[in-house]
Amino acid sequence: MGMLSEFKEFALRGNVIDLAIGVIIGGAFGKIITSLVNDLIMPAVSYIIGGSSFKSLAVMLRPAVLDAEGKETSPALLLNYGAFLQTTIDFAIIAFVIFMAVKGMNQLRRKQEEPVAAPEPSDEVKLLTEIRDALTPKKD
Fold it and tell me: What average pLDDT does this structure show over 74-88?
């Protein structure tokens, strides 16, 4: 079997196609979640805590070094704990949203898989069944 035919067989398998579709949908879903966090949730959180963003929070470990003319020769050394805090909050929100989406999908799947119970037969159907059974010859 030639290399081209092996590749064609591999690429057209259902699992590869499903994986490709999952990656594409996952990327699009990731953009939606990122927008939810960055454009809706974090501005509300920043408003509540009274700041603009966590990303600006930092501790200066060493100030910038300036030369005689006032030009910066060495930038300030900052411990950017705000960026870490922001990333951690983003992760927690994204993980929660994904958890809720998967939970909702699982509930829908369970509803589809539940067997539908047959309705209780009416009194007329029960009576007709009894008559049929009474008229059927019994085998000994």
Answer: 87
